[in-house]
Amino acid sequence: MRKISFAQAVNEAIDMAMSISDEVITFGLGVPDPKGVFSTTLGLQDKYGNERVFDMPTSENAMTGIGIGSSIVGLRPIMVHQRVDFFLLALDQLINNAAKWNFMFGGDNNIPITIRLIVGHGWGQGPTHSQNLQSIFSHIPGLKVVMPTTAYDAKGLLLESIFCDDPVLFLEHRWLHGTEGEVPEKDYRIAIGSSKVIKPGKDITLVSLSYMTIEAMRAVEELEKEDISCELIDLRSSSPLDWVTISKSIKKTGRLLVIDTANESFSISSEIIAKASMEIFTSFKSPPQRLALIDAPSPTSFGLTSTYYNGAEEVFAKVLEIFDQPSKPNDNLKSDHSHDIPGDWFKGPF
Amino acid sequence: MAKLRKGVFGRLNSFINNHIIIKSKNMSLFEMQKRMLKIRFVEESIAERYSEGKMRCPTHLSIGQEAIAVGVCANLNKDDLVLSTHRAHAHYLAKGGDLKKMIAEIYGKVTGCSKGMGGSMHLIDKSVGFMGSTAIVGNTIPVAVGMAKGLKLRNKDAISCVFFGDGATEEGVFFESLNFAIIQNLPVIFVCENNLYSVYSGLEVRQPKGRKIYEMARSMGIEANHGNGNDVVEVYEKMLKAKDNISKDKGPQFLEFDTYRWREHCGPNYDNDLGYRDESEFLKWREKDPLKNVLDSSEFKSYIDSLKDDICEAHLFAENSKYPEYEEFLEISGIKK
Q1: Parallel, antiparallel, or unpaired for β A180-182 and A3-5?
Q2: Which of A65, A92, A141 has its CB closest to that of B146?
Q3: Is A71's CB within 8 Å of B132's CB?
Q4: A139 included as an active-site residue
Q5: Candidates 1.10.10.60, 3.20.20.70, 3.40.50.300, 3.40.50.970; correct CATH number of B7-261+275-332?
Q6: CA B139 – CA B162 distance, rounded (Å)
Q7: What's the ipTM?
Q8: Subunit contact B333:A142, Cβ cutoff 8 A
Q9: N or C, which end of chain A has less CB nearby within 10 Å?
């Protein structure tokens, strides 16, 4: 099958949705510009015109409300922000309106808006350009939160999000845009709230999401050589949570490590571990664990980010620790490029 | 005994018997006065019964501000869409919203317009184009702009109209929304009801002395007008002009109307004793009652009698209705499919 990048898969999903339905519009700061939001929106304005594909003023809160209003009269807006951090100005419209509209008017008042938010990592993005806020959004009843890892899932989940009648936050990790994967040319949808067992295993359940799943996959291969068989689940959506798949896996393996891209306290990992402790406590052979960022804002300095962020090496070490095995270095997990970029293709600064 | 007022209003009042149509065929003054009476008596009925403790949600009464809602909505068709604020009863009723469903919503009953999930601050009646009211200051302004965007994109003739107070013009989202409506030339009318107070904070502690909100809006590049919000004919005519401007492709329109809320910010009582405003100021505004010469006119006696019956019936309907079942709440919130 043909391989395309995650960014191309996103572009293809929007293009396909806009050709399927003239209800679909897309806007955001930079959408029609030459870079096209990390090339995810390239070519769309030429194809669908500037009434359906448009740039916007730096007015995050109003534009979210405008998206909501347009969806009330039958449109399916896709809004995008180049960084999740800018979108924080729109929490009133998101939480008080998008999440509540259907409920507070007694049902039959859906808001089918998709909000694409790019989350960052590395290259000195620092405290206000690289936050991972999936747990904040997942905390709000009425919102769906999607975080795909592969190009295949990006296309199928984005199409599903756009045609879903509820507000969906679609979080794209910046380091995934350049990754490639097999993506069918046809229209296909992936249900929101369904996770994917990337690799079956019997000794421990790893639940991961977004970019950290890529790192976990590398660690899992090396752990296999240590005779530890990991079952790796890519969460794909954090709300709703696919508890059926997660609990089934924990019951089988008896161990759990949740891997998150965000700060650890009050996070997705908190929720999964709380739920597991409450509902299937007796399945555990050892206490559930998590690997997430320490509770500090992300630093900018190249001298700090290497320690602050987790990667395959940390996943590998954490799993060994859970099995009471002595830590050991693994040269295969050392990256062949600088720690603050996803690969040599990434030239910064954006 | 009611003296006719001078000027346009007075002249028109003298034609009440003929149910004369003002300028266009949209709505007669007589009909508008009936609508204002309806809002006044509904609101008074809520105030009277609120202490019974059966309407258990924050309730912001529109008494004193009826003319803006009626004068604006008299120019709107069913297909035109309206959004409103926490103080929404007048707008909902002026747009033709169902009375029984509104009262039942305030009682938290399943027969309410939002099935009891929203209360007084979250009213909706889409069958007449009343698209919702919300409780956060300024928060429906962009939503109205978005509705206008959708209407324009889908080539609908209808327009979008949003009510908000003077306080909302201090929010960032107000400027963001006007800005976008102007650059995209959207069919939306912004209606600012300036009642001088944001809760208990007067304009003098919130906005620079001498600022005119409509002038500020105009400086952004939107056609803006200003008028006496307690004179339903003036409101009607300014709104008619604004709507006409939209049909002539002159872009979004902004209207500011001066008015005054008689009762407390939230609740059924008068609050002039609190000290944030003078009794004399209140009395001055009460002299400008939009229903002056109407309340005691014999012309409306039979209408008022039937209105009172309707209102009693609406309260009875609400009281006799059931609260929503918990299962229904779970379904509406999406927890249970």
Answers
A1: antiparallel
A2: A65
A3: no
A4: no
A5: 3.40.50.970
A6: 10
A7: 0.88
A8: yes
A9: N
